[in-house]
Structures are given as structure tokens and as C-alpha cells.
Amino acid sequence: MMDYSKTLRNNNKIYSRTSSQKQNQQYNSDFSLRFVFSGNERYDIGKRHLSIYPDSFLILNKGTQYSTDTDSDIPVQSFSINFDQQFLEDFKEYWAFSDNRLLNKGNYKLKHDQEFDETIYPFSGDIMYNVYHLKQHLDSGMNDELLINEYLHHCLINYFSIYNEEILKKAEKLHFLNTSTKIEILRRLNLAKEYLYSNYNQNISLDDLAEHSCLSVNHLLRTFKQAFNLTPHQFLIQLRLKRAQLLLKSTSYPINEVVNLIGFECPSSFIRLFKTHYNITPLKYRQTA
């Protein structure tokens, strides 16, 4: 694990840090993508508490005030990319005029001064491939700024595509006529999603989830299913199984301890669900991962 900070000539910045305990308050001066490769890191933004794990990432807009906190038995390896404002504006021009996949879907327009939803996004697919390869190059001492900026450009392409999938398309699924209503309801649903991501190992009630998202229970159940194609309970089960995969792959915790860490009460039901979902038992998954 390597720690470094790199500022490119165009003022894009990349940070890699490893820590087991950290707590500090910061001001985000640039639009940034935040990842962890091991352990988890909590971000407090106002009254919101968001925890990111190796299967998720967070974006922060320019000017956001936040604090971070890590307290883990596993060293937390964090990685962040801060984009210079001019680099970001140039990319928005490129996206608007040479790639209309985002702009031509729905009634949404991407504005130059638009702020993106500071929420938890899935870290998988193309963005994971690009970030992992970028980090491998940097860890090996690569200093080719042209290549680094190509990776950063592709990371923005990946994020804008994810934004389209996770925000714009999900908002379109909601059964409301007014666009602003769809965006507001999705913002509240994302509060519920964040709560599940950050408290997945706790006993979460529908009342807690509804209160956190400022929706009634019935409204939450109906609109959550519309946006995410899963009920909150189904979403939580899938999330717990994904976190079980991470623990089985990266730690030596016994199966029973993994069960406790992800919030399941019964090892037999966990094993049954894991096998049903992944077509392999937890033990065999660990042996082949």
C-alpha cells in the first residue's frame, strides 16, 4: 500500500492514503471522486452520514464542507481524484457536443454550473476498471501526465454514464408528471439508499428508513420499488450479500463472524441466500476468490 499525493500541471490532483484511524474536517475545493480499496470510510456532510466501502464511491461537489472518520481493524486505503474546474468544464463541453447519450434521454439538460448528487454510487464495471488501472500505474511510479489525464478523462465519462443510470433514468421511472417532483422524490429515495449503504449491518425498520428519507412508509415502499426495481428489504439483502463477498475475499473471519458483521442473525439462512444468489456456497466462494 502506497501513500502519495500528485498534482498535475493542469491542477488535477490524486491522493492515495492508508490509515486505521482518522478524523478531520475539510473543505472540498474541487469536484472529486472518493473511493476506498479496503475497510470503510465515513463522510459526514451536514446531518448526513455516508459510509463508502470497496463496492461503492462518493462524489463531492466544489465547495462542500465535510468531515471524514475511519476506525477499522482493517487499514483503510482511500483514493481520491480532484478535478480542476477548467478540466471539468472542458469535459462538459465535450460531453454536451460530442456525446449526447446523457443529454438526449429524458427532458434533462446538463448545465455547466450543475451540481451532481452527492450520494453513494456503485463502484463496478468500467469505472472500477479505469480507477484500478490508474492506481496500479501510479503505485508503480508512472509519471506520464498525458496517460494519467486520459485515465481521468475516462473516469469522468464513466461517472457521467453512472449519473445517467443512477439519477436521470431512475427519476424517469417514477410515476409523476412533473420533472422537478421526480428529482425531489429521487433525492429523498437516495437518502434511504445511503442509510441502507451506511447501516446495512444494523436492524433497520421501515419507520426508520421512511423518517430518514422524509417520506411516509407507503410512499417509500411504492417509489423505492419504482426507482430501484427492488423493495427496501430486497435491496438490503443484496447489499449484505455483496458485503459478505468482500469479507470472504479480503479477510479470514470465520463464516459465523461474517454473518454477524453483515447483520444476519442466522448462519443457515445466510448460507442458503448466498448460494441462491451466487450459485456457490460462502466457503467455496472464499476458496476460489
TrEMBL record:
Region: Disordered, residue numbers: 1-25
Positions with biased composition (Polar residues): 7-25
Annotated transmembrane regions: none
Superkingdom, natural source: Bacteria
Cell membrane listed as a keyword: no
Keywords: DNA-binding, Transcription, Transcription regulation
Gene3D superfamilies hit by this protein: Homeodomain-like (1.10.10.60)
UniProt cross-references to InterPro entries, sorted A to Z: Homeodomain-like_sf, HTH_AraC
Pfam families: HTH_18 (PF12833)
Domain HTH araC/xylS-type: 190-288
Name the UniProt record assigns to this protein: AraC family transcriptional regulator
Organism this protein belongs to: Mucilaginibacter sabulilitoris
